[in-house]
């Protein structure tokens, strides 16, 4: 008898739900979209769109049911900003959206591709039409960042992923004004050796706030002789001290399997930058880039993810790398 692991995420039958062919102008690929629910319940995806130079910009797509009949902005919604050249010279990528009640605005945290590599930039918007550019908040090489929706101990908190070769861990930093960041702390380390999340990890969508803690879906990058495999894992962090890991799953929970995930511009990539939460407070719609080519949707349950962590977590509270490896 073949024993099968249980699946925490179910792929939508319409996948991929958005491709370059849907775009109102000529593009190479659409992937890695940030997501949010607008006040009227409309799903907004802020999609990474790569043009035929290889440079990316962001473009908004809106849908009443979050699955189809997308209304896509006729032209790019957010382009690299000449006022922020050379930091955004080669485009902007992989947005994560957080609604911040205190500001009554959405914070968009994205990758700014400079000549010196990717850095983290931020913009604020009330409506995805007008934007206030804050510019670079973390210098290269850094990416995979999102803002928490509220202050922690009076300070804003930004999760990000600086690279300190040969490994790349998730860090969290604090600020009183969203511009000057400090009090940097390691949040989650990449494991070593044979692990699926060895050497390089990063935040995927912004954390999901639950009574048990911040539920984080992160990606692990496994380097193989045939290239990289991008898969997803789960970890839970303390609500009041989000650098403190409470639980970390040992196995990945979602990985490239469907043809649109295993084959594309970059094979074997699932890369979610956003989710929406249904009115039941449990159903998560995870929007992910598939093979750096299209956007796909998978559905999961917060309750099931937390239960899974209970069953599959190594007690991950500050495990030194020598023990992890
Ligand atoms: C990561 C990011 C993502 C991309 C992934 C796979 O480093 O740059 O934008 O989807 O690589 O190519």
Describe this structure in words.
With 325 residues, the protein is mainly β. The chain has one domain (14-313): Glycosyl hydrolase domain, family 43 (Tachylectin-2, Chain A, 5 Propeller), CATH 2.115.10.20. Helix content is 6%, strand content 48%. It has 3 helices and 23 strands. Strands 15, 16, 17, 18, 19 and 23 form a 6-stranded antiparallel β-sheet that branches. β17 (213-224) and β18 (227-237) form a beta hairpin. The longest helix is centred in the last third of the chain and has 11 residues, at 302-312. 46% of the residues are buried. The model is unreliable at 316-325 (pLDDT under 50). Residues 32, 93-94, 230, 266, 269, 271, 289, 292 line the site of beta-D-mannopyranose (BMA).
SSE topology sketch:
Elements lengths: L9 E2 L17 E9 L5 E8 L5 E8 L7 E2 L19 E9 L4 E10 L2 E9 L6 E7 L3 E6 L8 E9 L2 E2 L1 E6 L6 E7 L11 E4 L4 E3 L2 E12 L2 E11 L7 E5 L9 H4 L7 E8 L5 E8 L3 E8 H11 E2 L6 H4 L1
Antiparallel strand pairs: 1-22, 2-3, 3-4, 4-5, 6-7, 7-8, 8-9, 10-11, 11-12, 11-13, 13-14, 15-17, 16-17, 17-18, 18-19, 19-23, 20-21, 21-22
Beta-D-mannopyranose (BMA) binds next to β6.
């Amino acid at each position: 008898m073949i024993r099968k692991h249980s699946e925490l995420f179910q792929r939508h039958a319409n996948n991929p739900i958005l491709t370059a062919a849907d775009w109102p102008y000529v593009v190479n690929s659409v992937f890695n979209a940030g997501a949010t629910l607008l006040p009227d319940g409309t799903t907004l995806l802020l999609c990474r769109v790569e043009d035929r130079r290889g440079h990316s910009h962001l473009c908004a797509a809106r849908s009443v049911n979050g699955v189809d009949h997308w209304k896509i902005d006729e032209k790019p919604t957010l382009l690299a900003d000449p006022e922020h050249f050379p930091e955004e010279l080669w485009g902007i990528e992989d947005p994560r959206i957080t609604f911040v009640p205190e500001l009554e605005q959405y914070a968009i945290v994205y990758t700014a591709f400079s000549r010196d590599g990717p850095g983290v930039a931020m913009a604020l918007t009330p409506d995805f039409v007008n934007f206030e550019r804050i510019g670079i908040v973390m210098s290269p090489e850094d990416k995979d960042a999102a803002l928490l929706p509220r202050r922690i101990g009076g300070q804003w908190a930004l999760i990000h992923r600086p690279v300190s070769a040969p490994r790349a861990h998730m860090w969290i930093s604090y600020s009183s004004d969203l511009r000057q960041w400090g009090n940097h702390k390691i949040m989650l380390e990449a494991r070593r050796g044979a692990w699926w999340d060895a050497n390089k990890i990063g935040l995927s969508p912004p954390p999901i706030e639950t009574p048990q803690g911040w539920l984080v879906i992160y990606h692990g990058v496994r380097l193989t002789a045939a290239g990289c495999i991008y898969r997803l894992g789960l970890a839970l962090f303390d609500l009041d001290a989000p650098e403190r890991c409470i639980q970390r799953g040992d196995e990945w929970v979602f990985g490239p399997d469907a043809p649109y995930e295993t084959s594309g511009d970059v094979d074997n990539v699932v890369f979610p930058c956003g989710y929406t939460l249904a009115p039941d407070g449990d159903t998560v719609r995870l929007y992910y880039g598939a093979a750096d080519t299209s956007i796909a949707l998978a559905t999961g349950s917060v309750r099931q993810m937390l239960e899974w962590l209970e069953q599959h977590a190594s007690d991950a509270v500050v495990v030194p790398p020598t023990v992890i490896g």
